[in-house]
Amino acid sequence: MAKIDKTQYTKDQFQKLLAERKNQKAIEQVQATTAIVEASNRLIKPNYGFVVGNGVSRSDIELAKLKQHGKIYACNAVYRDFEPDYLVAVDVKMINEIEKTGWQKTHSVWTNPNKTYKNYEGFNYFVPNKGWSSGPTALWMATQHRYEKIFILGFDYAGLTEGRLVNNIYAGTTNYKKSTDSATYYGNWIRQTCNVIKENTRTIFYRVILPDNIIPPELNKFSNLKHIYVEDFKKMFNFL
Q: pLDDT for 162-179, tens place per residue?
């Protein structure tokens, strides 16, 4: 892009133009990343992991169609309507819910050690306890299995309605906030996600987003983290 001549604009006009250019640059980066991934898919046999959070950005992605492409690491209430390869849940209420169904006895469910449910059968435990939220913990778990590429779905971070309201597919259901509740603070999620990406420089991470999802500035410092749009992701894996 050509350099902007500041003398031709008012301060407000100049700031608006800078914001528009920044947004256009972000769009171009996402498009370029999509082209690179598609080319790579045609040349080599994929070695993928899929980590699934529950932000609403993934609502239109059929998780079952990803099974043929790699292992799926999902969180919390996903088990209600889908069977991932690994389920991560660290909230006591969610573990109690899963225990009542017995789902952990026939599936791989991972959590942190906790005296509240130390006598439950069938759960797998992270030792030592990472003390992290479910999403970043699932992302960390996927890196332990040494994938070349990991796609991150539903890690929206910010709330809905200009960040004010809770952003979760399961909002309003048992053990979740109501859809009208205030958004959850996501600072810890960002910090934990950054730790995983920083520690796994040989893995390329792709965060799958909608055009109106935020890209937190903390994530811009990693050369091994890219962003792609949901529609492009679906095309890559022949969803359309």
A: 999 999 999 999 999 999
Distance CA 155, CA 52 (A): 8
Q: State which residues of the chain have pLDDT below 50.
A: 36, 39-45
CA distances to 50, 94, 171 from 178, in Å: 27, 16, 5
Position 43 scores a pLDDT of 37
Residue 90 and residue 192 in contact, taking contact as beta carbons nearer than 8 Å: no
For residue 219, give the nearest of 29, 79, 49 by alpha carbon: 29
CB atoms within 10 A of CB 93: 13
Kindly state the tokens that stand for 89: 């849940």
Q: Element (H or E) spanning 50, and its range?
A: strand 48-52
Quickly count helices (H) and strands (E) in the chain: 6, 8
Residues in Cβ contact with 102 at an 8 Å cutoff, skipping those fewer than 6 apart = 122
Integer Cα distance of 62 and 70 in angstroms:
14
Residue 161 CB-density burial (10 A; 0-12 exposed, 13-18 middle, 19+ buried): exposed
Burial 129-145 (b: 16+ CB within 10 A, else e): eeebbbbbbbbbbbbee
Closest CA to 150 of 140, 160, 163: 140
Q: Please, which residues have CB within 8 angstroms of residue 107's CB and are 6 or more apart in sequence?
A: 79, 83, 87
pTM of the model: 0.81
